[in-house]
Specification:
Layout lengths: L8 H7 L7 H20 L45 E4 L7 E4 L3 E7 L2 E6 L11 E3 L2 E4 L4 E4 L5 E3 L11 E4 L2 E4 L2
Antiparallel strand pairs: 1-10, 2-3, 3-4, 5-6, 6-7, 7-8, 9-10
Length: 179
């Protein structure tokens, strides 16, 4: 009769070439692959894209500079139709009194009848685009920052800086970029 003695895992592994992996090594490797995938998904690239998938300007023009069209650096519009020759942003009829309109690059508001303001639509907290205008506030839903429709100042939430003012004019029935 043959005496059969159980062999240890180490002895079995030594008998098989290329099988030095233990269960622990395999699990550690799987964990490392999973962690790498998670980090890659959360990482950022250098393409200039902000967290909500929109691009920032590579070389932004400072607000109020002559390159941006000069004009009123406070973002005030001329409610008397005062000769603006810039690009049309929105018809005045589309901007509700006490509300506003979110456009591709700016937010245009009408805090009081005939007074129009414009601000960057990029939240100063972490660069998300604002998403709503309600109850006299411009709202960024990324972290619930609120900004005043009158001057872009933060009124609630983590944002500490106002939205950048954009110079505008009113030309007839349109809000236009300041010339």
């Amino acid at each position: 009769m043959t005496d059969v003695q159980p062999r240890t895992d180490a002895e079995i592994q030594q008998d098989r070439p290329g099988t030095a992996s233990t269960r622990r090594v395999v699990l550690k490797g799987a964990g490392a692959v999973g962690a790498t995938a998670v980090l890659a998904a959360c990482g950022t690239d250098s393409s200039g894209t902000n967290p909500n998938g929109t691009d920032f300007a590579e070389d932004p023009i400072p607000a109020g500079s002559t390159e941006a069209g000069g004009g009123d650096a406070n973002g005030g519009g001329d409610a008397n139709g005062g000769g603006g020759t810039g690009n049309v942003l929105v018809a005045t009829s589309k901007v509700a009194v006490g509300g506003g309109v979110i456009l591709d690059e700016v937010v245009v508001t009408q805090p009081t009848e005939g007074s129009y303001k414009a601000f960057s639509n990029v939240c100063t907290h972490q660069g998300c685009k604002v998403s709503e205008i309600k109850d006299g506030s411009i709202i960024c839903r990324c972290h619930n920052s609120l900004f005043s429709i009158k001057d872009g100042a933060p009124t609630e939430g983590p944002a500490g800086q106002p939205l950048a003012a954009v110079p505008i004019d009113v030309d007839g029935d349109n809000v236009v970029t300041a010339a």
